[in-house]
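2 proteins. here.
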Amino acid sequence: QIRLGQLYEQGIGVEQDANEALGWYTAAADQGNAADQANVGDFYESGPGIRSNMAAAHYYRLAAARGYREAQADLGRMYELGKGVEADPAQAYLWYSRAAAQGDKLAAKSRDRIRRQLSPAQIAEAERRGN
C-alpha cells in the first residue's frame, strides 16, 4: 500500500494523483503502523493535494501514542503553534518531552523553550499526564 501510494504521489507507472496516493497511505496507516500514521500526518500537513491541519494532528496523535518519536515532536509543534488543535503549551511540553526522552535533540530544545512559559504547576501536571 505504501509503495503504491508512492507511485501515485510521484507519478511512476501511473498518472500522478495526490488524492489516490493519500488513499493508499491512509489504508496502510489504518492498519496501525506508527510510521505510516506519521506519514499520513505529514501528507495532510505539507504534502501535495488536500491540506488539513486537523487531520495531520489526528494522525500524528495516533503515531505519537504508539511511541513514534517523530510524531511526538510533530504533535508538540502542532500544540505549540495551535495547528489543527487548540494551542496548549502544556500539551506541547508533554509531547516534546516524550520525543526528547527518545533522543530527539530539537524536541529537547523546544521542550526547554516551552518550559520557560509554564508555571511549576503546569509542568507538574504535564509530567503527571506523561506517565
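next one coming up
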Amino acid sequence: MNVFELADFAHRLKPIEPGTYKLWLNAVDPIGELAVSDIDDAQVTRYRMERLKPWGSWCGGTLKMRLASLQSIWNVGIKAKLVDTNPWLGQGADYTKSKRKYTQQSWNYFHEFHKDPMFLCIWHHGMRLGEIAGILPEEVVLNEEIPYFDLKHNKIRKLKNEESIRQVPIHPACRPFVNELKLHNSFSSYSPGEIWSRRLKRRTGYPAHSLRHNFINRMRKAGVEYSIAMRLVGHSPQGTTADYGDVFLEDLEQAVLKVGGLQKLR
C-alpha cells in the first residue's frame, strides 16, 4: 500500500469535509507514491526539511497543517491496523501558524460587490465564508419579527465549533438579496464559497476572510459590548462572567444595525 492509497482508505473510513480532504491530498502529494512501510523517521525529517522554505511568515503554518494532516491519516491507519506506529506524531510542534493581518478598507473600496449577496452577508454580519456559502434555504428565516440566519451543521458543511451554532439577525440591506444566495454543490471538490473568495481576491486583493476581520474591527469602533460581539461572530467569550446571562436576538439585532450605522428602537 502506498501513501495515496492509505489517505484514500482513511478518507473512506473517517468521513471528513471536502476542504479537509483537499488539505490531506496536498500534504500527501510529495510522498504519495512511496510505500507506507518506507515512511520512517528519516523520511519524515526529509519531508520537513524539503518543505520548509523561505516563502514568507506563513510557511511554518502551512507545514504545520500538512504535518497535522499526515498525522491524522496515520492515526486512522493505526486504528484500522494497517500501520503500527505514527512517525508524524508531534512533528508540527516546532512551527507556528501566523495570523494574517488585513488593512481595513471602506465600503466604497468594494464597490463592484455592492449587490453581491455573498459579499453583503459577510460584510454586514461578519460570518465565516463557509457558514453563509453552505447555508440551506430552511436556515434563512424571514417570516419572523426579526429575520435571521439559523446557522447550524448541515449536509453541505459543518460549522467550525459549537460556538458557531447561532442565530444571526439579517441586516435590512441584505434582506432583498438573501434569496439570491446560490447553494454550494455538495459534490464539488471545492469548499463552500472557495471559488467566490478567489474571485473577490482577484478583483479587490482581499479574500473573503478579510471581510470578517473588517466587521470585527467595525464592531470595536461602534462600541458593541464584548459578549454580544463574540456571540454574533461565533467566538467563545473569555473570562469568569462569560457563561453568565443571556444574549437575545434583539441584542444581536441592535449590534448588527449599530455596526451598519443604523439604529432600531424598541
